[in-house]
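Severity: low
Component: inverse-folding endpoint
Summary: output formatting inconsistent between runs
Steps to reproduce: submit the following structure tokens with default settings.
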């Protein structure tokens, strides 16, 4: 869509390695190394990038922590050391705040895949202040 229709966009990626790779693709979109807040205000979260494509914000995975003892040890270590290479703090902003920052409140296409927090993020959007057309949400499996 960028090449054939001249579209621009916003790419939000909290995973440091994935964001670095994204920058090498010469996209015509705004790119931000943050995460989308599940609250209507900014917040810091611990991000767990130790499991590749299933990386996630630790807050969302609390109920599963007891299932994987080694992961528990990694997370406890990260909190104690504050950050490691694969577990680190990430700033999260409400989507609307990011849209205001780039001067875009009219969106032709909106895709959202955030490992299960889609609904919480959608709830933060002041729908009367933005014009978002087709929305694609990730399918939970």
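Observed output (run 2 of 3):
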């Amino acid at each position: 869509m960028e090449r054939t229709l001249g579209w621009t966009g916003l790419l939000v990626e909290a995973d440091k390695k994935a964001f670095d790779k994204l920058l090498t693709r010469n996209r015509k979109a705004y790119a931000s190394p943050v995460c989308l807040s599940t609250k209507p205000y900014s917040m810091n979260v611990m991000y767990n990038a130790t499991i590749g494509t299933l990386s996630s914000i630790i807050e969302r995975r609390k109920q599963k922590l007891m299932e994987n003892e080694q992961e528990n040890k990694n997370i406890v270590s990260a909190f104690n050391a504050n950050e490691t290479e694969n577990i680190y703090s990430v700033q999260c902003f409400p989507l609307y705040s990011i849209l205001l920052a780039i001067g875009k409140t009219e969106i032709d296409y909106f895709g959202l895949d955030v490992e299960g927090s889609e609904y919480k993020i959608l709830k933060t959007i002041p729908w009367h202040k933005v014009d978002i057309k087709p929305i694609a949400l990730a399918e939970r499996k």
